[in-house]
Structures are given as C-alpha cells and as structure tokens.
Specification:
The chain contains ten helices and eight strands. By secondary structure, it is of the alpha/beta class.
Amino acid sequence: MDLSGKVAIVTGSGRGLGLAYAQELARAGAAVVVNDVDEAVATAAVGSITAAGGTAVAEVVAVGTSEAAQALVDRAVGEFGRLDVLVNNAGILRDTTLWKMTDEHFDAVLTTHLRGTFTCTRAAAIRMREQGEGGRIICVGSPTGQVGNFGQTNYAAAKAGIVGMVRTWAMELARAEITVNAIVPVAATAMTETVPFVQPYIEMLKNGEPLPAFARQELGFGTPEDAAGLVAFLASDAASGITGQAVGIGGDRLALWSHPSEVVVEFAEGTGWSPDAIAEVWPEKFASAQQTVGQQLPQEPGK
C-alpha cells in the first residue's frame, strides 16, 4: 500500500497494537501523529518510526475529552497540513465482575474507549469534510464486544458501542467519501497477558519461539505486527469501497464479522404474543437457535 502524502493519527500508539499500526502506516508512506499519555513512551515510539525512515510526531494527551480530540487534529494539521486517516486505538482495562465493578471502573473504560472514539471521530470527520477529499476512519473493536467476556462489563459495553457507532457513521459520512470501519484484533499485548487460554502462547513469544499453526490460525492469535497490515489496507485507496464493516485479524486469520440479524421469526395470527403462546412455541422453534455467549474456542489437538 502506498500512503505517501497521507497524514494519520493513531491514538494510544505508544506501544502494543497502536505502535504496530503507526509503524505500518509510516512504512507505507504516511506521516503519523503518535499519541500516548506517557511522554517518554510517545517519544520512543516516534523514534522507532523516524529511525526506520518514517515521519512522525508525538501528541501527549489522554484521549476522551473533546479538547484532547481537537488537540490531536490540530497537531496533524499544524505539522503536516491535513488529515486523511484516524485510527481510534486508545484503551484501558478495569476488569472485574459485575458485583465488584465500581462506577469509577465503568466510567474510566467508557470514557477512554467509547467517548474517546466518539470525540476523536467527530473532530476528524469535521476536518475531513472541510478538506472535501474523503478520508479513512478505523475504530478498534474486540471479540469481547462481539460476544461478551466474563469480568468485562465495561469493556464489552464500550467495544460493542464502538461497532454500533461505526455502522451509523458509515451511513452519515458516505456522501463525504469518508469510510468508517471497525477492526477486531487479537494479539499478544499487555491487555491479553491476563487471558488464560493464550498464556502458553504469550510465553512462547517472549522466549522467541514461533507459534504453532493452531494458535495462529484456529485461535487467530499472533503478534501486534500481524494485525497491522489490515489497518494500512483500510487506510488505502484499495479499500475505498469498504465501509461499515467489522473485520477480524490476528495471527494468520482474517475474518469478516456479521452484523446482528434475526435468526428465527414466527408470527401470531393477528392477536400478538401472550406469555403462554411464547412458552408453547419457544421449545420447538427458538430453543435450538439460541445464541452462545463468550468466545467458543477450539481445543488444541492433544491437549
């Protein structure tokens, strides 16, 4: 992908997946505004990009407020004259079960992920519409937002909400030729180090060992760099006809997620549905089609 002349903002790009996205965009030719709350981390990220021949600057700000979003857009325009790509990656975790989750746990995650994605997209969309040359907005979802996960009420709500906003923005920004998509990445990062089923594979990566095909393909689990190509693709002209989609990426696995849709429909005969009528029809027509919750993970052969 050739992104020469393009300018991108990647929130939460000091380390992990965000850094991999920023590095890949810069490698393809884009000038990148790196963002992190830690100045030293952001500076190091910029250094890794410029050392490889890319162009980047850092904007140290906590994503969530309208002021932070505008500061990011202003930095991109002030340094490079325009804005073409926004990657909403910034996020935090405050995991605990429902009955232990505080208001502060809930609000902190929703502020960074959901409100941060909203405020940054709004500021970027205003600038892109003013430029009149289209644009690319890429938001980061999660399998947790698609199917749920134990102990992640706040994170699941935020990530599901992001995908819902993406579908709406894809419609609202279509006339301006601004595409809006969600990616659903899975990779070894600080956020996945506490996930039990990937622990053995994280240890393998830390030890410099290659991951088995089962991890990379069946689980779709790999390094942050494995997920970065999708971001560069969606930021490119090659993806101009793709919008409103949720695309999974991880390891060797690339997948298109479906939108929620009705799976069983029955009709009453002009009387509506009474509780007794529902109880009668449910076992035969609906029970077998009930949806699972959580990720339904395959078992590695021999384990």
